[in-house]
Amino acid sequence: MCGVLGIFNSKENAALEVYDGLIVLQHRGQDAAGILTFDGRRYHIKKDNGLVRDIFDSRDMAQLKGNIAIGHVRYPTVGAGGIEDAQPFISHSPFGMAIAHNGNVYNHHQLKKELFDKDKCLVNSDCDVEVILNIIRSSFQKQRVKNLQLENIWKAVKSVYRRAYGGYFVVVHIAGYGLLAFKDPHGIKPGIFGQRKNDLKTDYIFASETVAMDILQFEVIKDVGAGEAIFIDNNGKVHSKILQEKNWTPCIFEYIYFARPDTTINKISVHKARIRMGVKLGKQIKKAKLPIDVVIPVPDSSRSAAYGVSQALGIPFKEGLIKNRYIGRTFIMPNQEVRKKSVRYKLNPIPHEIRKKNVLLVDDSIVRGTTSKQIIQMVRKTGAKKVYFASAAPELTRPCLYGVDIPSGKGLIANKLTIKEIEKKIGADALFYQKLSNLTESTKSHKSFIKKFCTACFDGKYPTKGVDKKTLKENEINYGTIEREIDGNAPTDQLTLI
User: Fold this and answer.
1) What is 270-447's CATH number?
2) Range(s) for CATH 3.60.20.10 in the chain?
3) Is there a smaller number of Cβ atoms within 10 Å at the N or the C end of the chain?
């Protein structure tokens, strides 16, 4: 889960706009950030570890000249996490190219070796976007391109689809030619195309979420299609082509946790989807006939779902936990020790809303259980009589191959334990998980064309080809930050491919 932006601007202020866009996409990655611009002759780039506001100053922005810019915020799932893996990346030949992406290529390590052995391309980092860059570069070289044509670009993107397995949304600038964006054939990662008309020309934007377009006053044209490539040439003309479309299966975790609630992805409002999740969950909880006094969200991503729960139950919704805005999202913290330490700094209870009450806490999901346990303990110490816990997502039991930091099943609390055992482990008086069928039904919208979602982390149904026990084991060894484990509640040889 990263955030990516690409702007084709009619004015010389593309970097400033990308900066503003990255600020509102900061929730998608807090490890590193970068901005690259092109002034018609050369690339200018600044990237570093840290938050957007801490990396760029007025001097940097003055040096980032040009009307074309690419920006990125990083949430690392591969690589060591150093500055050498920060995006965007540059290749100086052929033509000169710059690239950034959101997603994960799970055969990245094999491709890195293959590119060196067969294509004579050195991938110098552990970042999988550099693999994609070199596949494009190699395709251009094999085509012996001198004057780049649209068909050369389409062939290069097809070569990425043929060789790189995973979920990704990619933005590429080709010096002297234009700005390219494309999405994986299953449309797993979000990517939106927008425009802003002015007196002279039309400006264009590619972004991971519509919130970046809102702040920059762009209007949405469309979601980039599954297996679609869109190219904006130097004259501002837009070219698009579906190159390899499969069944659209966007990541459902975007709607549960990753995306901001004021975002719309695939014509589905994240806020409305989360409210519907809450209503479904609330109806399920209602059957238990518990003496609940108050519904309290675990801020921030569960707030919409908690509101839906309170509506279904007819029980007051209250803000009982206050979030420190200067602490990052604990799920995307780099290691478990940092997560443990940050939870208490991140949240502080409001005693008036909790003391002597039966509290229902609603969170977006339960991943490792560490955060949930600490929050429950905190609420008990504040004086709650009973603490019930509800997850807007079903039980997470499987590794993710597409960019969520779940490379293994072993660190997932629901991988080995039953709901009753988890209830006891985290210290809840009662525990409720969303049903998967209710989750998918909640996420669908009559305005959207999406019929299925990637739910592999819940049910092991991986949409991309060739996912088997060996693939998962290699992914775990190559990318794993959690202890090695593959056999969840159902063994991986029973994983289903869509």
Assistant:
1) 3.40.50.2020
2) 3-246
3) C
